[in-house]
Design brief:
Among the domains are: 109 residues, no CATH class; 130 residues, no CATH class. The protein starts with a helix and ends in a 19-residue tail after the last strand. The protein is globular and about 65 Å long. Helix 2 packs parallel to helix 3, helix 7 packs antiparallel against helix 10 and helix 12 packs antiparallel against helix 13. The chain is built from 14 helices and 14 strands. With 421 residues, it is α/β, with parallel strands linked by helices. The strands form four sheets. It has a five-stranded parallel beta sheet with strand order 1-2-3-4-8, sandwiched between helices. A four-stranded antiparallel beta sheet has the order 9-12-13-14, with no helix packed on it. The protein has a three-stranded antiparallel beta sheet with strand order 5-7-6, with no helix packed on it.
Length: 421
């Protein structure tokens, strides 16, 4: 259609023929069983490679809302889903997703966006997002859902290689470069002043907390750094935390491994979020950030959250309700044949030992990525909580261990298409 270079140019407007082709492809995808259409309006995710448009945001960030509406009309008429990533830094375009979902004098558009969180950098934001969706759904006939993770939103980083640094200009400038060129930039006094002003600014919109007290160094060529926060190291060196961090990244690059918590660090607030009526449990994103996140087992962590809350005298929901939120509720809203145990349905089943829903399900470790020698990713190990898994009636996990045939022989499942297809 547009071609990559034109799609990454904000001045380009698609031609009538290109619009018609996009509409035709949307129909074709829905006919094949796609659940809907997903867009990205957050400019953090960037193009890579060495071509001239390296570090430009992804193509859909350049589209106008009038362009999206040509495609959402198709989704609305066919009862399919509009999924999007709003600009979580500026936050204002969430209103456009809400407006698009509303069903006043028209059919509601199933819409889901990420994410409702208890964000350290914007405490209380979840109250506002929850209220907005309640008004849209109850008063204006919308069918709008937030996606929400039921666990602590942790991030791991190698040096400065972390997507949240795309949130402000100085961070994006560093991520645009690689190797020695990046190291030289981080040492420049003018650049450091720019980075510090933006990092400490109270006026720039933000979602990341930008607080070096909330960090822990996990590995570094200098072992004396391990276990400390960047703020602690800065105090020891009598430096500003920004200068200390930039010094360490310039010196050690991706050899500097560190950890931080971005959101969902308060259990009682998280319990309110996962119980909100406009929430879909989901948004792992770990598969897109192999070195930075590990939320693969978020269903187990919801069960643990609910079980732990009940033991402490709180009741965000029953355990049965939590199971339904993870299974039938998701499948029914998405419109796929899954999530229910009944005669004649496909035999997909997970057997969980509630006694093993301990702190072990929260643990993330680095593990080798099969097929990619030398590459490690973050994974969860579940501490034996999953006893058995059946996919289409075939056992994929037995007594907590993966069966040898999983991933090596066919028949363990099939593509889940939209029910209407």
């Amino acid at each position: 259609m547009l071609g990559l270079e034109r799609a990454l140019d904000a001045s380009v407007t698609p031609t009538p023929a290109e619009f018609e082709r996009m509409e035709a492809l949307t129909h074709e995808g829905l006919d094949a069983g796609y659940l809907g259409l997903s867009i990205q309006t957050l400019p953090w995710d960037k193009m890579g490679g060495s071509r001239p448009f390296r570090s430009r945001p992804l193509p859909s960030t350049f589209a106008r809302w009038s362009e999206y509406r040509r495609l959402t009309r198709i989704l609305r008429s066919r009862g399919r889903i509009f999924q999007g990533v709003p600009n979580v830094s500026t936050k204002w375009n969430v209103a456009l997703f809400l407006l698009e979902s509303m069903g006043v004098f028209r059919k509601a558009l199933k819409t889901t966006v990420i994410s409702m969180m208890d964000v350290r950098g914007s405490r209380g934001l979840h109250h506002l997002t929850g209220a907005l969706s309640r008004v849209a759904n109850l008063l204006f006939g919308a069918d709008f859902k937030w996606q929400a993770l039921p666990d602590v939103f942790e991030l791991w980083a190698d040096g400065i290689d972390l997507v949240v640094f795309e949130e402000f200009g100085a961070g994006a400038a560093a991520l645009h470069l690689e190797g020695e060129a990046r190291s030289q930039l981080l040492k420049e006094g003018k650049y450091r002043g720019w980075f510090r002003r933006q990092w400490t600014s109270r006026l720039l919109p933000k979602i990341f907390h930008r607080d070096f007290n909330h960090s822990q160094i996990l590995a570094a060529p200098d072992p004396s750094l391990v276990g400390k926060s960047f703020a602690q190291v800065a105090r020891e060196r009598a430096q500003h935390p920004v200068d200390c961090y930039l010094d360490l990244v310039a010196a050690h690059g991706p050899g500097l491994r560190w950890h931080t918590v971005m959101a969902n660090d308060r259990p009682e607030v998280l319990e309110q979020i996962v119980a909100h009526p406009d929430v879909l449990i989901g948004f792992s994103d770990a598969g897109a950030h192999l070195r930075n996140m590990a939320h693969y087992n978020f269903p187990l962590r919801l069960l643990r959250l609910v079980q732990q809350a009940a033991a402490q005298g709180r009741a965000p929901m029953t355990l049965a309700r939590a199971v339904h939120r993870l299974t039938g509720e998701l499948a029914d809203w998405l419109g796929i044949d899954a999530g229910h145990l009944a005669e004649g349905r496909r035999a997909d089943l997970v057997v969980v030992d509630p006694r093993r829903l301990t702190g072990g399900v929260d643990v993330a470790i680095e593990a080798d990525l099969e097929g990619f020698p030398g590459l490690k990713r973050m994974v969860n190990q579940n501490d034996g909580a999953v006893r058995s898994v059946f996919i289409g009636g075939r056992q994929a996990v037995e007594d907590g261990s993966v069966t040898p045939s999983l991933g090596r022989s066919p028949g363990f499942g099939r593509l889940l298409r939209a029910a209407a297809a």
